Amino acid sequence: MTAPDAAGLRRRTRELLAAHPPATTDRTDFLKARFDAGLAWVHYPAGLGGLDAPRSLQTVVDAELAAAGAPDNDPRRIGIGLGMAAPTILGFGTDEQKRRFLRPLWVGEEVWCQLFSEPGAGSDLAALSTRAVRDEGGTSRSSEAESGGDWVVDGQKVWTSSAHLARWAILIARTDPDVPKHRGISYFICDMTDPGVEVRPLRQITGEAEFNEVFLTGVRIPDSHRLGPVGEGWKVAQTTLMNERVSIGGARIPREGGMIGPVAATWRERPELRTHDLHQRLLTLWVDAEVARLTGARLRQQLVAGQPGPEGSGMKLAFARLNQEISGLEVELLGGEGLLYSDWTMRRPELVDFTGRDAGYRYLRSKGNSIEGGTSEVLLNIVAERVLGLPAEPRNDKDVAWKDLSR
Asked: Which residues are catalytic?
């Protein structure tokens, strides 16, 4: 089948709208029909929500649907699934895994989380100690299980956004302690409803608990839920991590979108708060935010040619720095008002909100931006080595078996 052009996508979209009018069609039914029509993510293969069309033509579909008032799939609520799990499943999953997971993921029927970081393996993720041991004769208790051997997983993960809502998790675990740390990791899909999975809230500086710690005790994962070959989970995880950094730092936003918008609005509406120094700082940050926005647009255009590369780390770095500097300026601009904090209620929100609520929330929430999705220190190394071509940082643990590393 020949991939459709812009005119063909407009025609397909209008046919979808005619067959499933948004005003009278159930939201979930409409999203399922959109996926089945290949209009979910047009660059994905036919039958998996796409039409093998250029990624750049997704905006054609989105514009037609927005003009018709069609519902979206609430991407902020399912961002981990869309931005991280889906491209990894597409790149490394079996045909059966793609058919099983991509449709409910995109529609939003199943929320995903990411079980990567650990208390002793945050910045040095490859040092993780969660173990997965093969049990050839085991039978998984998961409702999704198939015949064959299982993996029995024990360990602890931390900083897991949306784990309290998730049905599925992307998980990396050590399957061979006798080889160097990067080579003894495998990648799995974990059913968060299975016995042995315990989710505990981590209350943050904002008062909320969007993060969690997850304890895995004898969790059985069928081998059919492994992504990629045994021992090559680090390679699979790189796809997840590069897509994660693009989804965080390179999101599509309008001019004055994101953190700069509320500050600019306050500046225009509250002239009594202005000073010359604050004006100069706001102008500098406004320009920086616009440069980052346009750079993000260029990065998304590069994705048309394939998977994201290390450039996404640079975008994530800029995102964290700008959010922290802009939110700090906003608190300073508001003076005494900026010190107020409206609500310290312990909540477990359904989505990660970087810019919501008031100035105090934005200031506190932005402190996590330089940690989540890869610490700024790690990303600086990636940019230095893989973008600028500088010499790699000396490492003495690359050829040492994980079990022999000092911890």
From this structure: 244
3-state secondary structure 320-339: HHHHHHHHHHHHHHHHHHHH
Q: 3-class DSSP state for residue 131?
A: strand
Model confidence at 323: pLDDT above 90: yes
- CB of 131 closer than 8 Å to CB of 156: no
Residue 66 φ then ψ, to 5°: -65, -40
Q: Helix, strand, coil: what percent of the chain each, to 5? A: 45, 15, 40
Give yes or no for residue 387 having a pLDDT over 90.
no
Concatenating the DSSP letter of every residue in 68-96 gives: TT-----TTTTHHIIIIIHHHHHHH--HH
CA distances from 113 to 65, 137, 254, 308 (A): 28, 29, 27, 20
**Phi and psi at residue 158, to the nearest 5°:** -145, 160
The token pair that represents 222 in the structure block: 């069928």
Q: Indicate the residue type of 70.
A: A
pTM: 0.89
pLDDT of residue 405: 87
- Dig out the tokens for 306 from the structure: 């394939």
For the ranges 30-34, 226-230, 400-404, the lowest mean pLDDT is seen at: 400-404
